[in-house]
Specification:
Largest sheet: 6 strands, antiparallel
Strand content: 25-35%
Distance between the termini: 59 Å
Shape: globular
Structural class: alpha+beta
Number of helices: 16
Strand order of the largest sheet: 2-1-3-9-6-7
Helix content: 10-25%
Length: 864
């Protein structure tokens, strides 16, 4: 029974009301506001008009009072059937954020202090036929941890967060505001069992070959009757062919278990079996094959009665992290079914500041966009949340691997406190048991940047304390994971490995030379220095990086104009205004200016800032990721920072809060293509090197074309090259001198395009100068709209740089955008709307960096 209706919410000041009075079934909550569960306090207040939208202007500051109050939820539900004496009635809260006390019919069931785990209460005696009242009190964070916060301990962005097992970015981060949520953020259920229930099913592939696969199944039960013997039926089915393995039945005696702590009581039982699958259909990432999923069914029986059952999707696959290559040298390569994977993707943060109120469809939209951008791995970053089930469902379905951080980031954590460590231990156990059967799950990682930053800041003298938190990811986590999930690698931190935890020689790395200006390499004991200059922050630093695996790197870009207009007062839509500065939570705003100064030049107004920052981000990520891919197999992965946003701000994301891609998203679809044709060139080089990169399981034979032309489209160089690239390999196809390419043409007036002649992938544009040094001619764009077919046709008289299509709507699904055009080239771009709304064609604007904007008046283009 899901309890989601009739919830109400009210705030109290500290000392205003007595807890047992508010929790009493007789308490009058008639005038409380209605609330949705799952949800949170802030979205409830927004819906009732009691706070202004926290994302608009500085409204996040106006609603800071919310985090100071005590909040109570109440609901009434009806229990129609009378429970039998032997029934076990469990009240389950999948997620409470965070310091909550739960009451049923005026009885205090217990308190919680961890947002990330579920909480179960045995309530057989407290329930009654008819109406029942649940009340949940949420205490403010400051009331629980204010006295514990040690101001001298290092913790980025907030001091009190290290004592709270809740979304760390709720306290504010360098890409999002402080919005300290509270509420019932996941489902609430009342469950009834007789003698036993299934607690956990752990399924993992032990072996996988062409002819047979072996799948290990472990089942954990809770039993409330030692007298019974239980049988567990395990089946594996395929949608097309039915059962694909002989069903197995386990027999477990109730006398074989051990007692469980807590009010839920009972005894713990466990058993296991193996399923043999003939000619298995393997699960692959979508770029390597089909992410085939079977259905695993587990049912529990006793005395001829079905007591409980579970069903879950399961892919058959082997996955290991190879940390040494064939020569014994350090490596960091994921091997899927024995095939080397180049991990292509991004870092994933919570998709909203108010995560409890986000519908599942928002996840599905973003996941589809990740696949469309040819991403095969996402890293769930350690300062947010262990994601909702829908996230992992979609990754399993779409063939996207998950690098899973535990939720510890950029801080020292009080591992000397027994209560805190007990809380963390329970969290790790619950999270691992919830996620370990996920086919997509590739890696457990202990934290984000704690090991690296502690050592660097300790060496610099900024942190005088011991490494508090070290025991969590170097003792507690590995011990628990060895017991609970030996099938996966545990990686203590990210970055980690080598003589400097951010060493390029071993492990994974975060390249913050670009953007933050970190001076690399360094070794243990040396201070971490920075170079805030055009050269020190330049994305051209990527070419020096020969990391084994780049798990974080990136640069800012503005949100789209539509997104800014919805959240910034019109009078403040000016470059450098206080409201625009508030969109950027990174402290040193000079970094973005220096990056643009080096590539596009410094923007002079808001429009230029939007376009220059987007172009710099897109070209910078392209420059770095194409370098990393050319460096395979020494480099085996590139996960840029970051994929999505939690609010409408300026950040490293490539998709803004309203689901609108920035230029870099559309670039990603091209630079992550499994068959990449790429030119290695940096302005000032005397030659261009043409490479082919193959991330598929088949050797490919292709013909590459390299074209250089002027701004008017006149071709000065055209040549084709034969390429044969081995499976999961690369080929250095050709080396061409710059003088031969240009044939006397000014480099500042040349456009270079490389493409596969068979049409695989898309044209890849290169320029021989930085954008600020190019001599683009002003262009006139020809734009035609076919609303019935949902398409826009664009052509240009001269070479057009970064053609962009804009409309005033969220979640627009552009087939392509922010693309370059050659003279005589016509692009037909289709557009849809992911929320099934109409397309506002009358707001369409098409422009280029070197061309006037073409707006639609009705459906007639008007040049502005």
């Amino acid at each position: 029974m899901i309890i989601k209706d009739h919830w109400k919410l009210r705030d109290f000041r500290e000392g205003e009301a007595k807890d047992l009075e508010v929790a009493s079934p007789l308490y009058d909550d008639y005038f409380w506001m209605s609330a949705e569960v799952p949800g949170d306090v802030h979205t409830t207040l927004i819906r009732h008009g009691l706070i202004d939208d926290p994302f608009y202007g500085h409204n996040d500051q106006k609603c800071r009072w919310v985090e100071e109050r005590i909040w109570w939820y109440r609901t009434v539900f009806t229990l129609d059937e009378v429970s039998r004496p032997d029934d076990q009635m469990l009240l389950v809260f999948e997620g409470l954020d965070t310091f909550a006390t739960v009451y049923l019919n005026g009885v205090e069931l217990g308190s919680t202090d961890n947002m990330f785990i579920s909480h179960t209460f045995e309530v057989s005696r407290e329930l009654k036929p008819g109406k029942n009242v649940i009340a949940v009190k949420f205490d403010p964070v400051h009331a629980k941890v204010g006295g514990k916060a040690v101001s001298t301990f290092w913790s980025g962005f907030s001091k009190e967060r290290v004592w709270t097992r809740k979304n760390q970015s709720h306290f504010g981060w360098d890409w999002g505001p402080r919005l300290l949520c509270a509420g019932i953020w996941k489902e609430v259920r009342l469950e009834k069992y007789d003698a036993a229930r299934i607690e956990h099913v752990y399924a993992r592939t032990a072996e996988a070959g062409e002819m047979e696969a072996l799948v290990d199944i472990s089942v954990e039960l809770t039993s409330w009757d030692r007298r019974k013997t239980y049988s567990i039926l395990v089946q594996l089915l395929d949608e097309e062919s039915g059962e694909v393995a002989a069903a197995e039945t386990l027999e477990i005696s109730g006398t074989a278990g051990s007692g469980l702590p807590g009010l839920a009581g009972g005894i713990s039982l466990a058993g296991g079996t193996k399923l043999r699958v003939s000619k298995p259909k393997l699960w692959w990432t979508h770029d390597l094959g089909t992410p085939h999923l079977y259905e695993l069914r587990v049912s529990l029986h006793t005395d001829g009665i079905t007591m409980d059952k579970r069903s879950q999707k399961l892919g058959i696959r082997t996955l290991e992290l190879k940390q040494r290559d064939a020569d014994g040298e350090p490596a960091f390569t994921f091997m899927l079914n024995g095939v080397r994977v180049f991990a292509k993707g991004a870092n994933w943060i919570p998709i909203d500041s108010f995560i409890g109120a986000v519908p599942d469809v928002s996840y599905s939209r973003l996941m589809d966009m990740a696949k469309a951008a040819n991403m095969n791995m996402l890293r769930v970053w350690g300062g947010g949340i262990y994601e909702r089930d829908i996230f992992y469902d979609e990754c399993d379905r779409l063939g996207i691997l998950v690098w899973q951080d535990f939720m510890f980031a950029c801080a020292l954590y009080p591992d000397y406190n027994r209560n805190f460590m007990d809380n963390v231990a329970e969290e790790v156990q619950q999270v691992v048991k919830r996620l370990r059967s996920r086919t997509c799950l590739a890696l457990w990682c202990g934290n984000n940047e704690n090991d690296w930053l502690y050592e660097a800041l300790h060496a610099s003298g900024d942190i005088p304390h011991p490494f508090y938190g070290e025991k969590i990811n170097h003792e507690l986590m590995p011990a628990l994971l060895e017991q609970l999930d030996p099938s996966r690698t545990f990686w203590p931190s990210s970055p980690y490995g080598g003589n400097d935890h951010n060493s390029r020689e071993e492990g994974d790395t975060h390249n913050w030379q670009v953007w933050h200006g970190n001076i690399e390499p360094r070794v243990f004991g040396e201070p971490q220095l920075q170079d805030y200059s055009v050269e020190g922050l330049s994305f051209k630093k990527f070419k020096e990086d020969r990391t084994k695996f780049a798990s974080e790197f990136g640069m800012h870009a503005s949100a789209n104009l539509y997104t800014l207009q919805r959240n910034v007062p019109q009078t403040e839509l000016v470059l450098g205004s206080a409201e625009m500065m508030n969109r950027n939570k990174d402290i040193n705003h000079l970094k973005g200016v220096l990056l643009m100064e080096g590539y596009t030049g410094i923007p002079g107004n808001l429009e230029e800032y939007i376009h220059f920052s987007m172009l710099t981000q897109a070209e910078g990520l392209k420059y770095g990721i194409e370098h990393y891919r050319r460096n395979k197999p020494e480099t085996s992965g590139a996960l840029f920072w970051q994929f999505n946003d939690c609010w409408p701000g300026t950040s490293w994301s490539v998709i803004d809060y309203y689901g609108l891609p920035k230029a870099a998203y559309h670039y990603a679809r091209k630079f992550y293509h499994p068959l990449l044709l790429t030119a290695e060139y940096t302005p000032g080089d005397a030659e261009l090197v043409l490479w082919g990169v193959n991330d598929t399981r088949e050797t490919v034979s292709k013909t590459a074309e390299l074209v250089v032309c002027g701004m008017d489209g006149r071709q000065v160089y055209v040549r084709t090259f034969a390429a044969e690239i081995e499976a999961c390999g690369k080929q250095r196809i050709a080396v061409v001198k710059l003088d031969d390419l240009l044939q006397g043409l000014d480099a500042a007036e040349a456009v270079c395009v490389v493409r596969w002649m068979d049409g695989c992938g898309e044209d890849n544009f290169y320029y021989f100068c930085d954008h600020k040094d190019m001599n683009f001619r002003p262009v006139n764009l020809n734009v035609q709209v076919n609303a019935e077919e949902g398409s826009v046709t664009v052509s240009s008289d001269f070479a057009a740089r970064m053609v962009r299509l804009e409309m005033d709507e969220a979640w627009l699904d552009w087939e392509d955008n922010y693309f370059d055009l050659l003279p005589g080239q016509t692009r037909i771009i289709h557009v849809g709307q992911k929320e099934d709304k109409g397309i506002p064609w009358n707001t369409l604007k098409v422009s280029a960096l070197n061309g006037a904007s073409v707006a639609m008046n009705g459906r007639q283009p008007v040049t502005k």
